[in-house]
Amino acid sequence: MGSRMTGRTVIITGGASGIGLGIATGLAAEGAHVAVADLNLESAQSAADAITQSGGSAIAVHVDVTSRSSVAAGIESTVKAFGKLDCYFNNAGFNKPMKFLDVTEENFNAIMSVNALAVFVGTQEAAKQFIRQGTGGKVVNTASIAGRSGFPSFAPYSASKAAVISITQAAARALAEHNITVNAFSPGVVQTPLWTTLDKDLEEIGEGDSGFDSMAAGILRGRAAQPEDIVPTALFLASSDSDYVTGQTMAIDGGMILV
User: What's the domain range around 146?
Assistant: First the structure.
C-alpha cells in the first residue's frame, strides 16, 4: 500500500466501473478512504468490497448525479463514515451516439444532464461541504478529448465535455478564495465497458468504422488506454502534489489531440 492519500477521503461518482473503478482502486491503494458512488449500488458494493478485501478502506453509496438531493446525501453518508471530505471526483458520464442530423432534444438533454449539469451540481455540493469544514478541498472532473474536438456522431457528448472544461475554469475562479482547487483530466480512447457499448451503438447507426479501433489507430503512443493509465494523474490531482494547480484540464490521451 502507498501512502500519498493516507487520511484523505475521496468520493468518485460512476466509481463502480471503468475509469471510476480504476481511480477508486488506485487511490485506495495509496491509503485513501474511498466512497464508491454509483447509480448501481450493487456494483458499487462489489467494488467497495474488493477494495476492503485487498486491505483498503471503502464504502458504497447510491448516488444519482442528476438529483441534487441524492448528491448531497452521498456526501453526507461519506462524511458520516469517514469524518470529512477532501476530494470529489465528478466522473459519472454516458454517451449515446446519434448521427448529427438525427440528434433529438431528448438525447441532447439527457447527455447534458448527466455529463454537464451533474458536474456543476456535484462541484457546488462538494464545495459547500469543504466550506462547512473550513478545510479547503479538491474537485476533479472527467472531461474528454471530445471536449476539445467535436465528433460527428458524438455532438451532444462533445458539447457536454466542452462544458465540463468551462465549468472547471469557472469553478476554479469562483472557489479559489475558499482554498478549493478545481481541475479536470481529459482521456482519449480508454478500454472500458462504456466503449464496448459505444462500439455497438455506432454499428447500429451505420458508423461502425468510426469506433474504438479506428480512433485508437490515431494514438501516438500506439495503443488505447487502460483505466490504470488514468490513475497517476488522478492521484496527482487528488493529492497535495497538485496544491498549486487549478482550473486546468490535463490530457491523458496518448497524444490523440494536440493543441
Answer: 9-194+226-250
